[in-house]
Amino acid sequence: MKVPLSWLKEYVDVPVSAAELADRLTFSGLEVEGIAHVGVDYTGVVVAEVLAVERHPQADRLVVCRVHNGREERRVVCGATNFGPGDRVPLAEPGAILANGMKIKSAVIRGERSDGMLCAEDELGLGDRHDGILVLPRDVQPGTPFADIAGPQETVLEIEVTPNRPDCLSMIGVAREVAALLGGSLRWPEIPLEERGGPIGEKTRVDVEDPEGCPRYTARLLEGATVGPAPRWMRQRLTWAGVRPINNIVDVTNYVMLECGQPLHAFDLDCLAERRIVVRRARAAERLMTLDGREHKLAPEMLVISDAAHPVAVAGIMGGESSGITESTQNVLLESACFSASDIRRTAKRMGLSSESSYRFERGVDIGGIEWASRRAASLMAACSGGILARGVIDVFRKPPVPRRVRMRFARARQLLGVELPNEEMTAIFERLQLPVVERDNEQCVVQAPTFRVDLEQEADLIEEVARVHGLDAVPAADPQARLVTDADDTVIRRRQVCRERLRGLGLTEIVNYSFISDRLADLISVGPAEKRVRLPNPLTADHALLRDSLIPQVVETLGRNRARQADRAALFEMGRAFFLNEEGRPTEEERLCVGLMGPIGSSDPIRRAAPSPVEMFLWIKGLLAAVTDALGIGVPGAWPYKADGLRLEPADDLFFEPGFGARVWLGDKPCGRLGLVAGRVREEWRLADPVSVMELLTDMVSQRVFDIPVGRTPSVYPAVDRDVAMVVNQTVTHEAVLRVIQRAAPPELADVRLFDVFEHERLGPGRKSMAYSMTYRSREKTLTDEAVNRLHEAIKKVLRDELAAEIRES
Amino acid sequence: MKPRDIQLLQEAALAEARQAATIEALEAVRVRYLGRRGLLPEVMQGLKDLPPTERPEAGRYANDLKEALTALIQERKQVLANRTVAGQTGFDVSRPGAWRGYGRRHPISRIIEEVTDIFFRMGFTVADGPDIETEYHNFDALNTPADHPSRDIQDTFWLEDGSLLRTQTSPVQIRVMESRRPPIRIIAPGRCYRRDTVDATHSANFHQIEGLYVDRAVSLAQLKGDLTYFARHLMGPDVRVRFRPHYFPFTEPSLEYDFSCHVCGGKGCRVCKQSGWIEISGAGMVNPKVLRQVGYDPETVTGYAFGMGVERIAMIKFGIEDIRLLYDNDIRFLEQFGA
Ligand SMILES: [Zn+2]
Fold this sequence. Notes:
heterodimer, A: 7-stranded mixed beta sheet, 5-stranded antiparallel beta sheet, B: 7-stranded mixed beta sheet, 12 helices, elongated
């Protein structure tokens, strides 16, 4: 809301500077976002007296004027003829720069020399009229700088009015605050009202068919008006307040709206069928062309202002073109009414229409101020247009609202604010705000909420008034307190935090991506099923069309982006949510963690530059999985002892994985993630030539044991004995299968089983490979003899032979 | 030689030994002092010429000299020998080591962790809620019904089934209060979404942290005290907190809070745009309507709530100029934020 200071000062004294006023308003809840100094630089523009006006010898439409600027005579060529000798006019002398940026220079125009320019209103930034030179009163001394008579430049406060304070969407509303803060009193404008016409009831009629939607409707009539420009001061103020002047009738409605906050509308009475108003809901298939030139189809729940036949305005939002004020309008019906805020809001939203009027109605207008606004506007209209006002007002106001009374307990206010404020000071604040205290005793007071304060409903609202006027700065800072809440449980969230820290500890750098991805990226790296993706009905851009169903696509994209910036290696992780449609088709979300590796990052050689081979890269990401799960206490896949409910990997056939290098990770019988190498086809997208690996895990599943309590068993004091076994098995036999078999026959003395060599060779035969394991035997009770160990080891070899058809290679 | 002179001699000898830069130089020092024709035997010889009263003391000093110098020469010899070996084998100790480094914290995580850690000390626990929220939790229960103008401020991403991407972390307040009885003392970081066009200071996807304390007799003064403690631990020991009245549907009174500028201390600088203050976010006393909505009795409990934008704080604290850097994940950028 733009508040020109000179306009504000009409209603209240402002004995402080604009900066201080802005500060006081900001710290009491009306945030002043900026102080603009508007108006125009009139340097080089002076008042000149016209001495003579002669026809331009070469051009019919131009005149050559001799003017006197107080010091000397000048010749100026001019296009307007609305003045004559003796008139005072603004003269822009060579060197002046006008409001529209025009630089004035001496020039020869159609053969006649011109030393300056006589100015019209718009050229001086005073309005948008350009139908003649601005003629000034004759008592102005030639040579007077124009700035002296144009008045000082204007200071405009730009105020952010919060949605709860629609009363401050007006000069008087702001003035009321200023009066409360600075201790002045509010000056209401006087309204001289001459109703010289016949009774209004004989000339028009208002029927309100929907009092819910329109609790109050008033109408006045102005007859015989001449539509033309509004007075300069009014147009000037409107311009400063950011409203474009149109004509005297419309400008008055805007002016009064800005003055008191009540939106008004003027109809051309002669364009209303049967010259009357009906407030009703729209009928099916009704249409209306609004003032902005758009045609709307109306829906039956929309509240409209109609004449005897058709809608002529969307109530409270915008008038129709057919009944708008035009230059030929003579008779004006002035509407000042109140419409239901939620009605206006729904309709405005549905039609995609909004206006200064709907903005105010949506927030709530002062139902008690409607008649005042009508009178004020009628008076100004009559004065500006020369029309005659019909006698009286039509005021359809069936059910005046019962005044709200709000109680405030003084002790409660002191407790809630933590401020020791005497009762009297609180009631004084209410009185300064013009909130009548209708009852009070030592414990409490009752305030009757004025109709302009639609926000005051409950005790807390009054306490807020006390707080903001007393000053929030005056609220002391109590000693900070620690307070334990014993039944609060944030274990799950703290587990995730532990995850985050472990991942960093493993050398992974954290990244954060948007929750949105594009269809293209989701298709390129399709992790979940396409039909389960959550699509945004109204995305901002195509890049943000979906909610990500996995963190993998953006992690790969991030590696690609860094590669494009010449990073040769990276180890990244992201923790965040993935989204998908659950079995019932509802959007749902899940915490994930995702890792991506690029370059020789897994090598222990710090100066290595050679890119990893696919196997190497796969083993790094697999090793990282083991490190992560180990760090989180859920074990290491492929480690001894083998646990059926532990971690295991199974080949995965996702298309974004390199064939043969993708795996699902299972924790017991539950899927908990996947890992693998990114397919070359996908890497090409970012010109990632070398292997890239990714891993995504379900955060809450892998972090479930983080806070488990470990058991501290005493290690065995007896020596360990190592025995190796090398065997040739079918290619299809996996390491996990070997462990599973050994586990079934394992004696308690088998302390560890480690794979230490795998190779394929043609001499092993097609489809065969060699696997070598090292087994550690150790008893908790005694030193194992060679014999005892041999016996145990033979038993293991036997199950390997029996169950895996292993050929044991005796060395 | 007088006892005092023997002491001076010792100081000189030890200094020479320390300064000897090679084994040869060290040997020369040894010969000069301890050699058969060195200075020490000379001193020993001279003892008998001293008056009997000074003799024992001088003898003790001479012995001290011998022991101290012998020990020092021994030690220096080893040091110089090691140095020679290192020089000869040519192993470059300045070569890069071979152990993987620590990963970096993302600045958004870093701020969330710093903020939650400070509130942990005050007895807050973390809470969270879903990114996909119901209209009820995100708006209605927070006293922002469908036709409420304050919904305009937050342009919402709606989903097809009528749910939405939360526009604020405040719905976590509702979820926690619905599930538990007071006292409530939570800090809730999380992702939020608004249909903002992305620019240097706006992101359609951002993070907030919400705080809520509901108990008997919670006051605005308590909020100010607790936020001041928080501000000092987050930004620096001299930071002050300022309140400005504002409006939020779910608090009453509502306010915005500012921190005094941690860079200039409030005098005015580029960071605070010469104002001495930096706007942080909104806060207030929980609106009794919200308490009633979750079945609490506003007569017996009151509460404060506050929010903050994580990206904004990260930008202020780390001097980050463009919010988009936080989502760009350039490792050169991320490397600056430590582990
Ligand atoms: Zn500063």
